[in-house]
Amino acid sequence: xxxxxxxxxxxxxxxxxxxxxxxxxxxxxxxxxxxxxxxxxxxxxxxxxxxxxxxxxxxxxxxxxxxxxxxxxxxxxxxxxxxxxxxxxxxxxxxxxxxxxxxxxxxxxxxxxxxxxxxxxxxxxxxxxxxxxxxxxxxxxxxxxxxxxxxxxxxxxxxxxxxxxxxxxxxxxxxxxxxxxxxxxxxxxxxxxxxxxxxxxxxxxxxxxxxxxxxxxxxxxxxxxxxxxxxx
Length: 232
Known about the structure:
Blueprint: E1 5-9, H1 15-26, E2 29-35, H2 42-47, E3 52-56, H3 62-75, E4 81-84, H4 101-127, E5 131-135, H5 148-168, E6 174-180, E7 183-184, E8 199-200, H6 201-212, E9 222-225
Parallel strand pairs: 1-2, 1-4, 2-3, 4-5, 5-6, 6-9, 7-8
Helix pairs in contact: 1-6, 3-4, 4-5
């Protein structure tokens, strides 16, 4: 179909990723997703049986990341939108957080995006366009207490995104770094923070969809979003 649109969203089983998945489905995209528990996609597969392509993958394993890239290339004719949203948040201080915390957080928050993007770039370059969104954080912009290895990983993701933006300009591929503050997702359940104090996952999805509506010659390089009352 000439007007068909294709997207890839990682970390789409809940929270921000699921909101982005639903937004793209509402815009008519066919979307490839993955996760460790495929039952979490049962509702969207029921409601959008022809638009959701799902496979099992664990992004703590680079081989699984690369296998998902191969799945995408096998099942989608092209990639118009890539959303590197998969991530893990674990607070801590560098001096006393558990051994291996940095390696795990960098793997999921950075290396997974790096390897998946590398797998899909040839087809995007061949098409001469597309849009890559990297889900960074306000933790990518400013160190904060108890940020630890998570903040390091998000700083690195922003650096990856900035370099990718410069590199892909000749092919007309857009790159946007999204840096949200606190968003009410399952990770905030039981925190005691009132949902109305922080942003909704749909807020991030709506801003992403707005960036997709710009002219081909316009790119939102960095999008920073915070709750109205500021960071917690």
